[in-house]
Amino acid sequence: MNILVVTNMYLGSNRESPWQGVFVTEQVEALRRSGNCSVDVLVVEGYRDKGEYLRSLGRVWKKARAGRYDIVHYHFGLSACSAPLVRLFTKARVVITFHGTDILGPLWMRAVSKTMACFAHACIGVSAEISSRLIRLNSRCATIPCAVNETLFIEHRDDARAESDVPIVVFPSSPQRPEKNYPLFSQVLRQLSAQHGIRVQERHIDGLDRSEVRDLLARAACLLMTSAREGSPQSVKEAMALNLPVVSVDVGNVRQLLEGVSPGMVVFDHDAGRLTNELADVLNAGARSNGREKLAALGYFSADVSAKLKALYASICRPSRCAHDRPDVERQESEEMQ
């Protein structure tokens, strides 16, 4: 199966934020490892200038025609501006993954993204909330989150916790991103000190490579998420893979992720007082969680997500070209019928 991935975020493409889109990169690499997949990548540099999305129209269309792709898979709604051309003038099937801001963000961005969804053979939402916004536009809509690299994000026996008695609390992004709501995070830490007498080390997942993110989460005592909006937050899943407790507002699919995971808590609203109390409980407990077990049960590791993607591709692809990529269970069922 020949696949073209079109994305506005990819590892190393944005010099100012080189780790942007690492989860897309990991998804591409997992597909390549899975076998029977040839994957090319075209990056739309929308981080430079929004005009890049329009300028990508001809570039994507020409590559899609020349490459004889079975699937053109877009990541992020704005990246899919060329989807109508690809659908109407090539034989490729169009898949669009929506990541959150494209469907839940500014009105103009939502309008463009929802228009492009109508030209897809299949849409993917990284959370059920996103998928629910798409199902009215495209009846073939699946919820498939970005995966966690299970070989990297795993606990080691020699992992050291905080070098001192002061526990580490992680903010899962850059404080400069307004949608991540750093002011609430900062308020919670101030209240934690004032009301509970607990001092912590504050650390941010910002400008770190993958190994550094893993090491930070392995040494931390808790990840605190205060975002205004999310899809299926990668930082929460990576924390779970390392059994790091998470305290979070109810955003994206965090409630589904953390259901049955302890210690940790999802707070219904953006209440600083409740977040402070829950964070204090987690820090006082001083225990790791059962997050990795929950991730495995959800099928959120790389190999699981690759299998789901390939099954979706096969379901929309022309039978003569993609029959060999259908899941083993389908082949087994057909053999039993004979």
UniProtKB/TrEMBL annotation:
Residues 188-286 form the Glycosyl transferase family domain. Residues 38-150 form the Glycosyltransferase subfamily 4-like N-terminal domain. The keyword Magnesium does not apply. Keywords: Transferase. The keyword Coiled coil does not apply. GO terms for molecular function: glycosyltransferase activity. It comes from the Bacteria. PANTHER family: SULFOQUINOVOSYL TRANSFERASE SQD2 (PTHR45947:SF3). This is Sugar transferase, PEP-CTERM/EpsH1 system associated,Glycosyl transferases group 1. It comes from Burkholderia stabilis.
